[in-house]
Amino acid sequence: MGKISLNKHIIELNDFVNSADNIRKPGKYLLGISATDERNLNSNFSVRYFFGGTDGIDEYSVKVGERFQSISKICPAAKMYEREIYDLFGLLPAGHPDLRPLMLYPENWDFSVHPLRKDYNNLIPEMKKYGKYKFKEVSGEGIFEVLVGPVHAGIIEPGHFRFSLAGEPVLQLEIRHFWKHRGIEKVCEGKDFVEALDLVSKISGDNNVNIAIGYLEAVESILNVEITERAKYVRVILAELERIWNYVRDVAWIFMDIGFALPAQNLFALQEDLMRLNKNLSGHRFLFNSLTVGGVNLDLVPAKLKTIEDTVKKVENVIKDCEGFILNSSTVLDRLEFTGKINHKTAEELSLCGISARASGLPRDSRVEFPYLIYDKLNLKPVLLDGGDVLARTVLRIKEIYVSKKIITDLLFNLPEGDIAAVYENKPEAYKNAVGNSETSRGNAFFYIMADDKGKIYRLKYIDPSFRIWPSIQYGVLGNIIADFPLINKSLNLSYSGNDM
């Protein structure tokens, strides 16, 4: 198994904050921040900062009391994590510029109750009005607001978008999510690793295979499980199939949003073929329950391999036609080019990942940066564009489909012989911890997991790519007209459920 190179540093908080080199180390960017209530172990809370880069991941572990120093002024990407810690642990990030509640909305939650503390009694506070959320305001002559959501038409999940406008151009967008926080991290405490796998694979269903891979990378490290070569190959094939159908759907919705229904419907039909393939392989259209601790639950017999080969060939042919249509249609280019631009500097400061980063010229691909399974053998290089706009994000998805198709066809008929699951011991070393990551269709899925002294989960922290990327849309819409917001939103295609766990 390709193991993550994790460089651990135990450091005093002041030393960490006062040394900009730790936070702004060249080539490093923030993967996430995780807090843990370790008062029963060492009388402290721990805050762990994870920075990724080409030489692996640096973990800075800091022991804190009821407060810790915010780093958001020198690392803007830290803002959301610190607000989350303030809500769920009650630890004050001193110096934070915006401490409005993030996860637990004050209208209906007693802010003296912090669910991720170990002494939380699992009782929901009395549901009454505890406060009022204050939105940022833009004032001036002729400026008005348009409020969208949190309840939307159709099946879209809840999210509130508040636009400040001068005519049609957007001056400010403020997003407020977390309307259906499910408490998955808390629910996973005390669960065994197999039970928790079922929970985390449902965090964001359209990326369940790749999220589960990130989870299993951490769990199998804790358990010292080395999965078989055949299981690694099968996991990669399933992961790339999931990536392909996501990107086919994403491009289809881009066409729908600019009024080109015919190419959109062709792509939706192709998506249906891919989801029927999923059902054929795993029994489920979303490939649920395909993975297990120590391996996979399904094998790829010769008949299924041929079906996969035929389907991805069809995908390539249809996508080539779509690519030509996009690049040769002035009407399409007029809608996509320069729309929703997220520039390189903004992407870097917000520590974006996945398509959103690579379309702005940042080489962020976990399969390359922190290779896992057999990705280190595939000679992958990040596919980059630098436009940062809807066009770049759309074309990049098409290029990524070609990459995934090649990975699948290269592996299909070179599967190693052997078992599809390894035997492992259930109980790990007490309080052993590990990180795991994978590259979903949206970007890096990152896990920090600590076992307890009974072999169950003591702390599970998951950071979805959508949590990292959602703030960027507030910059991408600036100067665009409000009518382009749905298109910009679709081009990022972020998960509400993955963002709000």
CATH superfamily of the largest domain: Cytochrome-c3 Hydrogenase, chain B
Put simply, the count of helices is: 19
Oligomer: single chain
State the domain count: 2
Q: Stretches where pLDDT falls below 50 for ≥5 residues?
A: none
Q: What's the CATH C level of the largest domain?
A: Mainly Alpha
- The CATH topology name of the largest domain reads Cytochrome-c3 Hydrogenase, chain B
CATH architecture of the largest domain: Orthogonal Bundle
Indicate the percent of residues in helices.
25-40%
What are the SSEs and their pairings?
Blueprint: E1 6-10, H1 13-18, H2 20-23, E2 29-38, H3 39-42, E3 44-53, E4 56-64, E5 67-69, H4 79-89, E6 92-94, E7 143-148, E8 160-166, E9 170-176, H5 184-188, H6 193-200, H7 208-222, H8 229-257, H9 261-282, E10 291-292, E11 295-296, H10 302-328, H11 330-336, H12 344-349, H13 354-358, H14 366-369, H15 390-412, E12 433-439, E13 444-451, E14 457-463, H16 465-469, H17 473-476, H18 485-492, H19 496-499
Parallel strand pairs: 1-4, 5-6
Antiparallel strand pairs: 2-3, 3-4, 7-8, 8-9, 10-11, 12-13, 13-14
Helix pairs in contact: 8-9, 8-15, 8-18, 9-10, 10-15, 15-18
Description:
The structure is a single chain. This protein is α+β, with helices and mostly antiparallel strands. It has two domains: 6-134, NADH:ubiquinone oxidoreductase Nqo5 subunit (Beta Polymerase, domain 2); 184-499, Cytochrome-c3 Hydrogenase, chain B (Orthogonal Bundle), CATH 1.10.645. 39% of the residues lie in helices and 17% in strands. A four-stranded mixed beta sheet has the order 1-4-3-2. Strand 13 and strand 14 (457-463) form a beta hairpin. Helix 9 (261-282) runs antiparallel to helix 10.
